[in-house]
Every structure is written in structure tokens, then in C-alpha cells.
Structure prediction request, 375 residues.
Amino acid sequence: MPSHYYIGLMSGTSADGVDAALVCFEDQPPRAHLVATHFEPYSPDLRTDLFSLFKPDSSKNSDQIDRLGHLDTLLGELMAQACLTLLGNAKLTANQVMAIGSHGQTVRHRPDGPHPFTLQIGNPHIIASQTRIQVVADFRRRDMILGGQAAPLAPAFHQHFLADRSEDRAILNIGGIANITYLDKEQQHLVAFDTGPGNGLLDAWILESKGESFDKNGDWAASGQPEPHWVSHWLQDPYFLKAPPKSTGKEYFHLEWSQSDHPDLPLLSPADRQASLAKLTLRSVELAVKNHCGNLDRMLVCGGGVHNAHLMAGLADALLCPVESTQQVGINPDWVEAMAFAWFAKNHLEGNLLKLEPFTGSNQPVLLGSLFPSG
Prediction:
């Protein structure tokens, strides 16, 4: 069996669990083979604790630092367990894996301002110790000190494995936050950025209203009517008007952001609010394509939103081009980001600097991540 396996770990802005992907790479031509997968879900209590960290708490008696430390350790243990379960399912041993690339769980992302920072938790020392596999982690901060937004990073993976010389493509990842990568066939006009809310506001509203963790197929959004005045109001937020490179997170686009009172706007039924939030996701993507991308022959979609039939149909109607899952070009849409961090670990071990300037705005090529030895 080959010894060039890598594991990628990803916990995104939806914060529902850890994706663990076992990947084997070919260099010529570039191919990424998904060998095995495992999803380690977070308990409801853990998700509640994580969500409490996503927004600043200015109260005098806040114990955010204690909770941060506790969750950093707990997530490290869960991520290690996800790797061990994955290896067991694949019938592989630790010495057959070159490295684990662990993104961790972002709890704060502040790319703008005089002292920008980004913070991911999930202690990589614990992962390395418990799996006995070296870990590459802390992928974002080096890009930020080189003038980048530190996000999105996955577009480098998109460019390497999903660009096509015969067509102009966009890769849209719809997680809690949505991000887009535009790859023209000549590789002359490359751009990537967070477009704004993806599933995050939809998930939060259906959880608050109906106690359900997500809107299956987008059926609830499809049952309502989007309110154009609310959508227009939301789209006036300065983030949507800002030129890329740009990135954001759930500390910015949280449910309260969408719920503030506006006496001049109509009241919304719960279903109509869900429909309006879905329309916000669609319109923000449409505007991103119109304002910052060139010709578009096809859009490939990955992330949880690929399973939302309402969003997928809305994208096809708005963009007037084929909108398809990345599965159509051989990469499972649910595992793209975990596979990307496996690939980032490979690049780190090989000393490959990645040119992220079109995507994050960094001012020089970047060696992503830091190495945490095994044992």
C-alpha cells in the first residue's frame, strides 16, 4: 500500500462536527483521491459552547478565556479520535500516514483593523500525541502577517485541482459563510473571497424558530416569499460593497445582525424571513459574480449548501449557466475543504510556498502552517 496518505481535518463555520478525510495525491497530472472519510459530530452542548465564543462577550464576569481553553483541549481530543476512527475504518496504521493537516475550529476572525488576528482552536499537540502522527496546523496566521486576509485558503486547492483550460469556472463553497473562487481558462483573472452568509443565517433561524438544525433541501425557505425590501436593506451592509480581497465570519454575520428592528420595513412571518435570508445568500453570490468575476461558463458548488435544492435552483436561475456539484468533476462536494487541508499539510512538508495573493491579498508566497511532531 502507498505510504503517501494524508489526513485533512476541517470544522467550518457551521460548527456541527469534524470532517476527517484520508487522501492520496498524484502530482502529474494533479489528482486528489479521497480514500476514506469520517464525520465526528459535536454534541448539542458542545455546539452551544462554541456558538457562545463566536460573538464577543463584554460582560464583567465573562469566562470566555476559561471556556476557550476548555474547548481547545476538548476539540483536540475529538479531532484525534476522528483520525483514529478514520484509520480504523480504512484499516491503516499511523505509520502509513505522512501527516495530518488540521484546520481547527475558527472562533474569531478579525482581518481588518490596526492589529488583525485570526484564532482557531483544537489543540494540535493533543492530536499529534494521541494519533502518533505529525500534525500541520495553524494555517492562517502566517498569511495574515504577510498582509493577507488569511481566508479563504481553499481557493489554492481549487486552482490546483479544479481549474480547466477549456472553460471559465467559479467554485462556490456554501458553508456557514459562502466563498467563491473564479478561475478563468487562461489563469489570468484569478480572484477569491467570502461572499457573505451561506447556510449560517438559515441554520440559525430554523433552529430558533423550529428547533431544527438545518433547512432540509431548502423546503422551508421555498414555502415562504422573500421580502425584497429586507434583502435590499441587508445588502447595504458595507461588507457587500467592499472590494476583494475580503473575508468574514459568524462573529459578523450572526442572527442578531439580521434581526435588528427597522420600523420602515414590513414585519416578516417566520417562513418569509427564511425565504428572505435564502434570497440574501443568492443575491450576494450573484453580485459577487457580476462585480468581481469575468465570463462564467460553469459554476461548481461544494459544501453543505450543495444539498439545498432551493439554493441550487436559485443559483442556476440567477447566473444563467450550468450550476453543478463538484462531484461532476470527480471531487466529493462534502469533503473539499478537508481534502484541501490534507493538501496544505503535504505542501508544508515539501516546503512549497503557495501564491495566495489573488485569493487572500498576501504580499508574497506563503508556507502555510506550523509543524507539531508526533509522539
User: Anything to note?
Assistant: The first strand starts at residue 5 and ends at 11.
